[in-house]
Backbone:
């Protein structure tokens, strides 16, 4: 497998195995806010924001794509806060959030396949 690039809060890592990916994710799982992205499967990429409880992901199919964003049909318009790698604070409605463990599943699935995780709903931006 050609190495994929995992970016964790602006730090880049070349990753060639699921074991390497899981080790890097494990080393950062206790951070209150974190931004992950993975590139290297052609033009596709994924960004996953996490806070202490939730994750929100956007899957890009090609360069310039507005992306597909996680969708929680049981969510409401309450908001959760996330801090991006550049320090910017963003808020997202619960209707776009999934549980944090699903955020890790999204990353692993994308790493292995280059596709968006099909066990959750996605909406087009």
Residues:
């Amino acid at each position: 497998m050609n190495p994929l690039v995992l970016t964790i809060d602006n730090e880049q890592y070349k990753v060639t195995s699921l074991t390497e990916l899981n080790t890097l994710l494990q080393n950062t799982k206790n951070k209150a806010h974190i931004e992950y992205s993975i590139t290297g499967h052609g033009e596709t990429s994924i960004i996953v924001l996490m806070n202490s409880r939730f994750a929100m992901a956007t899957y890009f199919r090609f360069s310039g794509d507005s992306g597909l964003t996680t969708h929680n049909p049981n969510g409401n318009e309450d908001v959760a806060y996330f801090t991006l790698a550049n320090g910017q604070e963003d808020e997202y409605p619960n209707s776009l959030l999934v549980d944090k463990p699903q955020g890790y599943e999204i990353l692993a699935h994308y790493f292995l396949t280059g596709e968006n995780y099909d066990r959750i709903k996605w909406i087009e931006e």
Remarks:
- Residues 4-124 form one domain.
- The chain has a mean pLDDT of 94.
